[in-house]
Design goal:
The protein has 166 residues and is an alpha+beta fold. The chain has four helices and four strands, in the order αααββββα. The chain folds into two domains: 59 residues; 97 residues, no CATH class. The N and C termini lie far apart (94 Å).
Length: 166
């Protein structure tokens, strides 16, 4: 009986050791695969981030802040402060009764208001406008006086024809 007990204990401990060995060897293999997958994913994400950063840099090529010549034109002045003045002046004209006069189109239903814009350089602004259904874009010229006042002139406007009949 004692020999059988030792035999059973030996077989039991052998099985425990085999299962433990298999568990830890598979666990290590799984962890190695997971680490390799994560490294591949991290490399892919870094490449995507680099591509998106490059795309953003190209998109910001035409911007007041990233245009060396435009910032040199405003030498000695804060470019961000000028951008805020331009922004406030454009949006302030949205509240006029007939809509924003910089749009260059008369009111068609609701008044036209400028929704979004981008300052391209030291002279031009591109903006999009709508009245809720009809949409368009406008290129504006802006001028900064010596006393810091900003004036605007509409250079070109465009109504998107596919939005007029909707």
């Amino acid at each position: 009986m004692k020999k059988n007990l030792y035999l059973y204990l030996f077989i039991f401990s052998l099985l425990i050791n085999v299962f433990t060995y298999m568990y830890f060897s598979n666990k290590q293999k799984f962890e190695d695969e997971r680490i390799a997958t994560m490294e591949t994913r991290a490399k892919s994400l870094k490449d995507s981030l680099s591509a998106e950063t490059l795309k953003a840099e190209k998109a910001n090529h035409f911007s007041l802040e990233d245009n060396y010549n435009a910032t040199q034109y405003f030498e000695g002045k804060d470019v961000n402060e000028i951008a805020i003045k331009v922004r406030d002046g454009i949006y302030a004209q949205n509240v006029q009764p007939g809509g924003n006069p910089l749009v260059g189109y008369p009111q068609m239903g609701n008044p036209f208001v400028i929704n979004n814009f981008k300052i391209l350089n030291n002279r031009w602004v591109i903006a999009d406008f709508s009245n809720g259904t009809i949409q368009g874009e406008v290129i504006l010229k802006y001028f900064l006086d010596d006393d810091g006042k900003v004036s605007y002139e509409t250079a070109e406007t465009l109504l998107h024809a596919n939005t007029i009949n909707n």
